[in-house]
């Protein structure tokens, strides 16, 4: 959320994933492709779910690309 970088498992669980569980019904991410380049991994896929405040669904699912630096 917010487009900022998120670092560390605890930060991601506490500040990112917890928001989705609170604000969305059926929220999930489906990864369709994984790509590795050295210590960097790219995950390409789409989010799905219904936003509780509006009742609107991500239809079609919203595409994403995540870049993960693994150390």
Describe the protein's architecture and organization.
The chain is an alpha+beta fold and 71 residues long. The protein has one helix at residues 9-23, and strands at residues 24-37, 40-51, 62-69.
Main sheet characteristics: 3 strands, antiparallel
**Silhouette:** flat
Q: What order do the SSEs take from the amino end to the carboxyl end, as H and E?
A: HEEE
Structural class: alpha+beta
Q: Radius of gyration from the CA trace? A: 13 Å
Question: Helicity level, as a percent range?
Answer: 10-25%
Mean pLDDT: 89
Counted by DSSP, the helix tally is 1
| Strand percentage | over 45%
The quaternary state of the protein chains shown equals: single chain
Strand element count = 3
Strand order within the widest sheet? 1-2-3
Low-pLDDT stretches are none
How far the N terminus sits from the C terminus, by CA atoms, comes to: 23 Å
Describe what is shown at a glance.
This protein is of the alpha+beta class and 71 residues long. Helices cover 21% and strands 48% of the residues.
